[in-house]
Amino acid sequence: MTPTPSGPSPANPLELDPETMRRLGHLVVDLLVARIASLDADAAWRGATRAELEPRLREPPPERPGDFERLLDRVVREVLEYAGRIDHPRFLAFIPSCPTWPGILGDLLASGFNVFQGTWLESSGPSQLELVVLDWFKDWLGYPPEAAGLLVSGASAANLIALVCAREALLGGPSADAVIYYSTETHSSVERAARIAGFTPDQIRTLPADGSFRLPLDALRRAVDDDARAGRRPFLIVANAGATSTGAIDPFTALADFCAERRLWLHADAAYGGFAVLTERGRAWLDGIGRADSITLDPHKWLYQPYEVGCLLVRGGARLRDAFHIMPDYLQDTAVGGGEVNFADRGLQLTRAARVLKIWLSLQAFGVAAFRRAIDRALDLTLEAQRRIERAAAFELLAPAALGVVCFRRRVPGGDEPAHERANAALVQGLNRSGLGMISSTRVRGRYALRLCIMNHRTTLGDVERVIHWLESEPLSG
Predict the structure, then answer these.
(1) Looking at the predicted structure, is the pLDDT value of residue 3 above 50?
(2) What is the H or E stretch that residue 266 is in?
(3) Is CATH 3.60.15.10 what the domain over 106-366 is classified as, yes or no?
(4) φ, ψ (nearest 5 deg) of residue 234
(5) Lowest CB count within 10 Å: 140, 218, 274, 338, which one?
């Protein structure tokens, strides 16, 4: 039976005719283009409480078909309206993500072709492309040819895979006396990964960061020595290549020397700052990162890709497969040899989407130099934001610009710490409600801090100035 021109086929209720698919696809693409073109005029954030959203969205699933155009309008007005515009030029909160249009189209292609990229048998082309892109990353970071990796959902998955890989490689499996070390600036996903992998709180040493918000080598050395004397098994150091709160970068060369001396695994959490190696100053800041045993990266941050895509690289690539390879009978047809790779053998997922398409398309469409310029521009804007903050008597700098982050606060004349916290928290909430922009907060040496994170390739100096001016001129409350 021929499909009707305006809806499902009577023979297959889940199929649409080509003309209808084309028309609906154009509607969605036009909507996305209009959204991106009007971002600057839109609010950087809109939110709603669950009590507000429940009566709009709570309903049983429909038994009969709905009109897609009306559904599209509804999902934009009643669902997508209430979310942060993470790619807005004045979204300076958390760690922004501003994807390229080729990257967005890459995700569309991956979904449309419905690629299963767990095995080479089912995805030889996309799997080969992932190997190529991973080699690009390895080259940028100074990793050897024998290193291996995979694309994952994000840093949380990458850090978990790295921890398990290190555990299997150095300990041979779970160990009740093994110890992990990192600083107070380390991302919470590392602690979560340790918990998932079965490590208890007494197996984790969280060391106070030094005056530059870095992992202190002397304190680390003492902690490792103390644990070794007590009969424990130090095995893993986690270092930051861009701490989320402050942008701080740990001393990789010194840490790599120490880990080589003590036969410890050095993991670099470079989810935030890793791709800064594309720039001259970034390479200098991240000197020694290529000596880490494993590295986490997030292309959906400073490589300007749509959510979600992370990456893990392991210097001794065979260790990754050794940690995760399992071959049940029902997958025996997918066994590989030679240079072919089943990416399911390198991590948590058997079912994997083709995340590589968006990265490859973006880099091919624009060239690496364009990404380098975008990162350099963000670094310049962050330094300018610091200079603007330091010139204003209303502000106090709490942590200098590092990568794309600068932390500061509005001064409250005569106010104690609780008064400063209340006033600055009110500024965060007020700016976000205003729609002009969005920032987030953190704590710097225990003090409440306003935190700007500048990564968006659309952000201009004028955008940064507008946000800082609002924070400077808004009457204090709280």
Answers:
(1) no
(2) strand 265-270
(3) no
(4) -60, 135
(5) 338
Q: What residue ranges do the domains of the chain occupy? A: 106-366, 369-473
Tell me which residue of 71, 32, 73, 77 sits closest to 53, measured CA to CA: 77
Give Cβ neighbours of residue 255 (< 8 Å, ≥ 6 apart): 215, 217, 220, 237, 239, 266, 288
Sign of CA dihedral 186, 189, 195, 199: negative
Classify the C-alpha dihedral 309-310-313-319 as positive or negative. negative
- What is each CA distance from 454 to 79, 337, 374, 378, 467, in whole angstroms? 27, 45, 11, 6, 12
Q: How far apart are CA 430 and CA 421, in angstroms?
A: 14
> Would you tell me how many other CB atoms lie within 10 Å of the CB of residue 304?
27
In 3D space, the residue among 78, 89, 113 whose CA is nearest the CA of residue 37 turns out to be 89
| Alpha carbon 401 to its chain's center | 20
* DSSP secondary structure letter of residue 65: -
Q: What is the mean pLDDT of residues 51-71?
A: 97
As to burial, measured by CB atoms within 10 angstroms (0-12 exposed, 13-18 middle, 19+ buried), residue 303 is buried
Alpha helix positions (H), 303-367 = 317-324, 356-366
> How much is the pLDDT for 1?
33
Fold adopted by 369-473: Aspartate Aminotransferase, domain 1 (3.90.1150)
Helix (H) or strand (E) holding 107: helix 101-112
Whose tokens are 């390739």? That residue is 457
Can you give the length of the chain in residues? 478
Cis before 63 (ω within 30)? no
Q: 424-443, pLDDT tens digit by residue?
A: 999 999 999 999 999 999 99
The dihedral formed by the CA atoms of 49, 54, 56 and 60, expressed in degrees to the nearest 10: 160
In this prediction, residue 405 carries a pLDDT of: 98
Instruction: Give pLDDT tens digits for 387-405.
Output: 999 999 999 999 999 999 9
State the sign of the Cα–Cα–Cα–Cα dihedral 138, 368, 284, 355: negative
Residue with tokens 């030889």: 124
In the structure encoding, which two tokens stand for residue 121, read together? 């048998």
Residue 2 has pLDDT above 70, yes or no: no
Flag whether pLDDT at 5 surpasses 70: no
CB 118 within 8 A of CB 351: yes
